[in-house]
Amino acid sequence: MVLFLILSLSLALAIVCGLLLLLILMQRPGEGAGMGGALGGSALESALGGGAGDVLARGTARVIVAFFVLALVLSLLHIHRAASRPAADGTPSPWDVAEVVE
User: Fold this and answer.
1) CA 78 vs CA 62, 71, 83, 87, 90: distances in Å
2) Is the CB of residue 31 less than 8 Å from the CB of residue 37?
3) Which of 18, 42, 71, 78 has its CA 20 to 30 A from that of 3?
């Protein structure tokens, strides 16, 4: 079950990374800069309206929060999986999950 969660959240993290990359490239720090300028200048503003920069900034902030939450959950799942698995020589793991999480 934990392995399925790790795999599915890893896929979600990869999708979030790609979306974050696109959102950052679409933002324009200056006139004519960024991917929005490369794809036709004001095409983004005509498609999304005059407040397109605000929409992109809020969307980028939300995707960044999703990225950090997914990364944190994945790290905790990896710690849980490593702590519940015995060592290669058959001895139990010296880590207690409760100690690691606290």
Assistant:
1) 24, 11, 9, 15, 20
2) yes
3) 18
